Automatic annotation (TrEMBL):
<dbReference type="InterPro" id="IPR006330">
    <property type="entry name" value="Ado/ade_deaminase"/>
</dbReference>
<keyword id="KW-0862">Zinc</keyword>
<feature type="domain" description="Adenosine deaminase">
    <location>
        <begin position="19"/>
        <end position="366"/>
    </location>
</feature>
<dbReference type="Pfam" id="PF00962">
    <property type="entry name" value="A_deaminase"/>
</dbReference>
<keyword id="KW-0479">Metal-binding</keyword>
<dbReference type="InterPro" id="IPR001365">
    <property type="entry name" value="A_deaminase_dom"/>
</dbReference>
<protein>
    <recommendedName>
        <fullName>adenosine deaminase</fullName>
        <ecNumber>3.5.4.4</ecNumber>
    </recommendedName>
</protein>
<keyword id="KW-0378">Hydrolase</keyword>
<comment type="similarity">
    <text>Belongs to the metallo-dependent hydrolases superfamily. Adenosine and AMP deaminases family.</text>
</comment>
<dbReference type="InterPro" id="IPR032466">
    <property type="entry name" value="Metal_Hydrolase"/>
</dbReference>
Length: 372
């Protein structure tokens, strides 16, 4: 099991040890460098580096491009080694082990099955392989006296809208064997959710939960389409919703803000924003507000009462963990432990789980924070 490389502290408490919920974490963005090297060797694939530290550095440096399109190019390497049942199962198993080591008690793992078929797997076989790795890791955690729960989110790539209905049907087929929701991923600008309308109509008819990447590399129209065409219950990133906020005036103690109809709807319906602070900086999602975490609209959205959640997006590319993301936000905005607990409760409330299981998750979070 891979342990976190650093113990992040707040008020003398280990953030790593606190119970956490991860809603936005890509399977192909969370591989261990050593695993990439070993799987590439088995498949005869060339890599940009063959030493774990050098390979990790390569991913992190390429991810600082300030563009989502450039950021996504690094996935050619990780997806390339995830083309066999054995490889998918190993990556999924280690992924869950690493989440558990970071204190995550519930995680949703998103990935696009149709990217993993080049060596003969079917869509269903790929999903089964990932689930087998998840099940192995969960069993190991439980055998050691720990607790973690995991659900799969199946993603359809925006640039291939014709595949969406097939992935949607795949997700529904596996709803009783580990898949908890549907997602869209890939380049956002120019590929609105409306291009996948048939898939979203089908998912709605099956009462199947949807989250849509929106408000990351495109603005308010993309968010509108996610909500209207996609019936999204959550927004992947969603940070550009802040474009619908008008700061009317500020003084030494207060900022006075008016909300547009779109942002008011998102707030009133408690539609969760799956923010990923480090990734949002790397992809340029918050470029209009600034270049540092302190300029991220996260705190403004939080103070206004939006259901903000904290996520990693891609732990390998961003060189991060959920504990690190929380620590960075605490440093940037002077958050305390009760703020961090709020973010976990927000995520638990937005999880694609039955209400009774969400309430159990909320209880686990409360007990864990009360114990420190």
């Amino acid at each position: 099991m891979s342990a976190p490389d650093f113990d992040y502290l707040l008020d003398g408490v280990s953030i790593n040890a606190l119970p956490k919920v991860s809603l936005h974490d890509h399977l192909d963005g969370g591989l261990r460098p050593q695993t990439i090297i070993e799987l590439a060797d088995e498949l005869g694939l060339e890599l940009p580096a063959t030493e774990p530290h050098e390979l990790r550095t390569w991913f992190e440096s390429r991810s600082e491009a300030g563009s989502l399109v450039e950021y996504l190019k690094t996935f050619d390497v990780t997806v390339g080694v995830m083309q066999t049942a054995e490889g998918l199962a190993r990556v999924a198993r280690e992924f869950v082990e690493d989440l558990h080591a970071d204190g995550v008690i519930y995680g949703e793992i998103r990935w696009a099955p149709d990217q993993h078929l080049t060596r003969g797997l079917t869509l269903d076989q790929a999903v089964d392989a990932v689930q087998s790795g998840i099940d192995q890791a969960v069993a190991q955690v439980e055998a050691a006296g720990g607790y973690i729960r995991i659900g799969q989110l199946l993603s359809s790539l925006r640039q291939n809208p014709g595949h969406a209905i097939e992935v949607a049907r795949l997700a529904v087929r596996h709803r009783d064997s580990g898949v908890v929701g549907f997602d869209t991923a890939g380049p956002e600008a120019g590929f609105p959710a409306s291009s996948m309308r048939a898939a979203f109509d089908y998912l709605a008819s099956e009462w199947f939960p949807v989250t849509v990447h929106a408000g990351e590399a495109d603005g308010l129209e993309s968010i509108r389409s996610a909500l209207l065409d996609g019936r999204a219950l959550r927004l992947g990133h969603g940070v550009r919703l802040a474009e619908d906020l008008l700061i009317e005036r500020q003084d030494d103690e207060n900022t006075y803000v008016s909300l547009g109809l779109l942002s008011q709807w998102v707030k009133d319906r408690e539609i969760a924003l799956e923010t990923s602070p480090t990734s949002n900086l790397q992809t340029g999602a918050i470029a209009q507000w600034g270049q540092t975490l302190a300029e991220h609209p996260f705190d403004l959205l939080y103070q206004l009462g939006f259901r903000v959640t904290v996520n990693t997006d891609n732990r390998l590319m961003s060189g991060t963990s959920l504990s690190r993301e929380l620590s960075l936000l605490a440093d940037a905005f002077a958050y305390r432990l009760d703020d961090l607990e709020t973010f976990q409760l927000n995520a638990a409330a937005a999880a694609f789980l039955p209400i009774e299981e969400r309430e159990e998750l909320i209880d686990r979070i409360a007990v864990g924070f009360d114990a420190v």
